Amino acid sequence: MKKWMITIAMLILAGIALFVFFSPSHKTVSHQDLRDSGFLDDKEVLLYFSSSADQDAFGGGKSYALFISQDGSLSSFQMKGLELGSAKVHGDSVMLEDKNTIYTIKNGLRSHKRAYQHTGDSAGFLQNTDGFYTLYNSGYDKKKDGYRSELYRQMDGEWKKDVISYYIRASGFHDGAIYALVPTADEKGYQLLQIQADQKKLTYHTITEWQYREGASVESQLAVDDQAVYVMVRGQKAHNLYQMVKINKKSGKVELHDIAEYKNDEQTIYSSMPFSFKNSFFPFDGNLYFIDGFGKVHKIDAKTGKTSIAFTLSQDKMKADFKEITQKGSSLYFFTYTYNKPAYIEQYSLKTGKKMKEKEIGKVKDVVTPKSHLKLYDVEVMKRF
C-alpha cells in the first residue's frame, strides 16, 4: 500500500514538474535586454497597453509592450504612459512610444527623447525615408492661440519634428502621404488635408471641406487607396445608420454610402460602435472592410459602396474584457483577453472568411490585472506568426 502511495505521489510531483517546465513563462525585460540584436528573432505578436491620460495626471501612468514568442512565452517592457499610443512593426523593425520617448528596435535598441505628449493619434512606416512616423494630438498652443498636433518622422536615422496647426479627428496613410480630417474654422464641418510626409520639408494642402449634421460622429480612422479617402460616420442621416464617406483625392468630390443600419434604441446603437477606432476600417484588394461592435465584418466595394457581411468574429471571444484587431495582407487578426484568463489571437482569411489559426497566450494576466488600470491601444503581428 505504501509503495502505491509513494508511486502516486511521485507521479503527481512529476506532473507538476512537467507543467512548470513546459508552461509558457513571463519575463520582465530591460533596456539592456532590448539591446540584444537577437531579441526579436522568435517574437510573433506585439501588444501595447497603457494607462489613460487622467491616470497619468500626477505622473503615475505606465505602459507596456508585451512581446509574445513562438513558444507562447511573454516578455514585458515597461514604459511611461501614453493614451492612444502606438506600437508598430515593419519587417525586422519595431517602434514603441511613451509620453517622453520614442523607441526603435532593430539589431538593438535606440531611444529618442522628445517633448511631452499626452495623446497619440496614429503611427506607421514611410517607405521612401525607410523610417517610422508617429502623430500626436498635442493640445493647445499658447503662442499661436490655437490647437497643434505634432508629427515626428524618422529620416536618415534621426527623428524630425513638425507642427500641424490643427486638432486631428482622424488620420490615415498611403503612398508617402498622411491624410488628416480636421475641423473647419466654424467647427461645422471637416477639412481633409493631404500631408506630404516623405520629403524633408513637410507640406500640406486642403483637398476639400465636408459639412456634417449636428450630432454626427466620426467612427473610424481614415482608410486610403489610390483614388480616394474613406471614413465611417454615424448620425449624418440617422443616429442608427453607419455611412461611408468617400472623398475623391483629385476632385474633392464627396459621396456618402449607407453601410449598416441597426435597431433604433440607445443600447443597440451603443453596442454597434466599433470596439477599435484605430483598426476597425481598412482597405484591401479593391474593397473596404468595417468591423462593427457586434463583430460583423462588412465588406464594401470601393467603387460602388455595395456592402455585404463577409463573416463574423467568434461570438464567444466578443465577450472578452479587451478586444483589438489588426490587418496584415489577406489576414485579419483578432486579439482578446479577459482578466485572469488566457488571452487568444485568431487569424481569419479576408478572402474566405474562415478562421485559419488560433494561438493561446497564457501570461498576459501577469501584467494586465483589474487593478492595473491599463487599456489596450494596439496589437501588431510580426512576420513569424
Structure description:
The chain is mostly beta strands. It has three helices and 30 strands. The protein has a five-stranded mixed sheet, with no helix packed on it. Strands 17, 18, 19, 20 and 21 form a five-stranded antiparallel sheet that branches.
Element layout with pairings:
Blueprint: H1 2-22, E1 26-28, H2 31-34, E2 43-50, E3 62-69, E4 74-80, E5 88-90, E6 93-97, E7 101-105, E8 109-113, E9 120-126, E10 131-141, E11 146-155, E12 158-164, E13 170-174, E14 177-183, E15 189-196, E16 203-211, E17 217-218, E18 223-224, E19 228-234, E20 241-248, E21 254-261, H3 266-272, E22 281-284, E23 287-291, E24 296-301, E25 307-312, E26 322-328, E27 331-337, E28 343-349, E29 355-361, E30 375-381
Parallel strand pairs: 1-4
Antiparallel strand pairs: 2-3, 2-30, 3-4, 5-6, 6-7, 7-8, 9-10, 10-11, 11-12, 13-14, 14-15, 15-16, 17-19, 18-19, 19-20, 20-21, 22-23, 23-24, 24-25, 26-27, 27-28, 28-29
